Amino acid sequence: MAGVRSYGPVLPVYVHEPNLISQPDVSRQHQVFVQETLAELRVEIERLGGQLLELVGESLDVFKRLHRITPITRIWTHRETTQNSQYERDKQIKAWCQTAGIELMECEQNGVARGEQASLSFPDYFAQCVTRKLKDPTGTSLTNRFAKPPLPAASPESIPVAAGEDKPLRQRGGRTLAVNAMRSFFSIRSLQRYPFQISSPNTAWNGCSRLSTYLAYGIISDREVFQAVDGVVSLGHEKLSPESFQKLQERARFYLDRLMWRRQYIQTFEHHPELEYRHMLPQFDGVRESEFDSERFEAWKAGRTGVPYIDAAMRCLRQTGWINMRLRATVVSFATMNLWLPTLQVARHLAREFLDYEPAVHYPIHNVASGTSSFDNLMVYDPIKQGIDNDSEGAFVRRWVPELRALKGVGIHDVTRTAGSLSDEARGLGLLPYPAPIVDCRQAGKLAKQRVSDLRKGKNVPDGTSEADAGTQLSLM
User: Fold this and answer.
1) What does the pLDDT read at residue 3?
2) Which of 30, 85, 341, 381 counts the highest number of beta carbons within 10 A?
3) Is the Cβ–Cβ distance between 284 and 276 less than 8 Å?
4) How far apart are CA 421 and CA 299, in angstroms?
5) Other residues' Cβ atoms within 10 Å of the Cβ of residue 296
6) Following DSSP, what letter does each residue of 276-318 receive, concatenated?
7) CA dist., res. 477 & res. 475, Å (int)
8) CA–CA separation, 226 and 237 (whole Å)
9) Element (H, E) at 340
């Protein structure tokens, strides 16, 4: 109550920002997911005795308007490591708050350090999160702590609509579903199986925690996830034999490694926000762009490259907004290495396609996968081998590429058999025969790996149409 007495009651506000909604990396599925989450949040706040005020406009204009009606003494927000457009917005609001005498309270997230702030190691951050109590006001009456909205909420019709279409099979928004996902995954059985479930798209759908979307939107926190992992390990200590418990600890660390990587990517983007527009290694700037092939780009986006595993991934993504981590790396490697498509154009398209798109994770990862970062190893995947290894019987391909459903077993990955295939079911759907591969994956990958290595070493690399490379460049056609 001390805060209420000192600064006044609290007004929960969400601003639908036209500038953010119109950004090229924002799509309709992102917007609808947010609106689903807001609908549940609105009910939760009402149960506590308050009202969520949704307004339309740029945040600075909205806050100025509210301040004129009812003076603001303090603004609470989370500190974001996100798109440049939003970072510029945050700087404007910070400057205005200083001028207007308003205290801006930016709560840190993910243990990410800004500026000269010292960074915690991941083990120290994990230990800090596990020991901090989670606050849950559910069931409490906080009516006297909330302010009444000083103006009417925006109508749904006044909210600009983001580009693109919603995805029919994506995850739904809201805190309830996020908590359900945590409760479903964080068990001894799930953590024990996790490392063996994540590579194949057939097992990853249910074998992964599927929490990335809820983390990206702040619906759950990494602190909650850490405490859930710690709870499973503690339970395992009570119930398992010493040998089984040791395995559980190893697999819990395996899961936590992925969250450590996530935090490292966010910290990288915090220090290098230019990765939204430029490569980590500047010698790659303009290289792939100078050889951009729009037909290849469109075939890749449409899932019509003639490489079954890649096409299945892109079609699955179009419907669901999610594919597993290994498949994401394969898709990006294929686009940027085998097809030699520009890293940033690939990244921007996938930003719209991934429901769990998080700019601070997305752009550093794309630099790694395309070879344009300082990461030592090159991630040049053979997409046919990846298909055989992770979808050996073709169940994933058969589900998402109906043209190939008449083909049985591992033969569905044989591009000499898939070209021209058209199952009776696909014919009934009005689909065209399946295309021949637009690229020789093995030869193109080999050439790309050499070109990327040469660029990293500072060598003068000829473009893809030079006479000196004519013999190998035929494999890219």
Assistant:
1) 59
2) 30
3) no
4) 17
5) 18
6) GTS-SSGGGTTTTGGG--HHHHHHHHHT-SS-HHHHHHHHHHH
7) 6
8) 17
9) none
Find the DSSP H helices in 334-407.
Answer: 343-353, 359-369, 383-390, 395-400
Question: Hey, where are the domains in the chain?
Answer: 1-108, 175-263, 282-476
Nearest one of 125, 234, 200, 213 to 170, comparing CA atoms: 213
Mean pLDDT over 342-367 rounds to 98
Instruction: Report yes or no: 445 and 374 within 8 Å, Cβ to Cβ.
Output: no
**Would you say residue 477 has pLDDT above 60?**
no
Residues β-bridged to residue 77: 106
The CATH architecture that domain 282-476 belongs to is Orthogonal Bundle (1.10)
Domain 1-108 has CATH 3.90.230.10: no
* pLDDT given at position 279: 96
* Cα gap 195→190, rounded to integer Å: 10
CB–CB of 142/49 below 8 Å? yes
SS3 103: strand
Q: How far apart are CA 282 and CA 284, in angstroms?
A: 5
Which tokens go with 22? Answer: 């119109």
The confidence score (pLDDT) of residue 209 equals 98
- Token readout for 184 is 């479903």
